[in-house]
Amino acid sequence: MPVPESQGVVARSLLRDDAYRALRDAIVDGTLAPGERLNDPDLVAWLGISRTPIREALARLEQSGLVQTKPGRFTIVSPLNVREARNAQLVAAAMHELAVREAVPLMSEHELKAMRGANRRFRAALRANDVDAALAADDDFHEVAVEACANPMIRSVLEQVTPMLRRIERIRFASLTGRASAALHDKIVTLSAAGDAEAAALTARENWLTLEPVLAETGAIDEPQ
């Protein structure tokens, strides 16, 4: 399995959550490609940690739909699956809609300023064709409402479904279609500032459903794995 050449890049005190994030990010950014086998010795050498937290992280990644495991045989990076991604998209759209609806009445100018700043960074990243920066800024934008709504169940569900969608968003933010998200972000901020929680929530839902055309163009498989 081709993995980054540097070894021991993660501190040996790494816990399973850190292993999960490292592997998740490598799958999302394409370092670990769809269909690639994930062998324990390679992962141990790359991350510089023991097998136990890696296996725990892989089990969590399987729950998120990012890897597939045949016990005693192999673990691979999941191919992109349109049906599963659509399911994740619908759940994410519903959760972000709920987060915004609950957050708007609680938002101060501080939160609105944070959203505007994140969207400025998002636009700048798109102009620079910097997909990683665009994803980070998009995360920062949506995180404001998720944090402000103070509903831990929303965060828990989003942590489950968002990693799969990030693989699709990388495709979107690498193209001109990503520019539409910035306009919808502006609309969410304007409606939130006006105290219109319902309209802001529905716009948040619309924003996440705009991934649909990208799903249709990925060429991914359309059968459950």
Structure description:
This protein is mainly α. It has two domains: 16-77, Arc Repressor Mutant, subunit A; 82-217, GntR ligand-binding domain-like (Four Helix Bundle (Hemerythrin (Met), subunit A), Up-down Bundle), CATH 1.20.120. The mean pLDDT is 87. It has ten helices and two strands. A hairpin with a 3-residue loop joins strand 1 and strand 2 (74-77). It has a two-stranded antiparallel sheet with strand order 1-2. Helix 1 packs parallel to helix 7 (152-173), helix 4 (82-103) packs across helix 7 and helix 5 packs antiparallel against helix 8 (179-193). The chain has helices at 16-28, 40-47, 51-63, 82-103, 109-127, 131-149, 152-173, 179-193, 197-209, 212-217, and strands at 67-70, 74-77.
Précis, in short:
With 225 residues, this protein is mostly helical. The chain has helices spanning 16-28, 40-47, 51-63, 82-103, 109-127, 131-149, 152-173, 179-193, 197-209, 212-217, and strands at 67-70, 74-77.
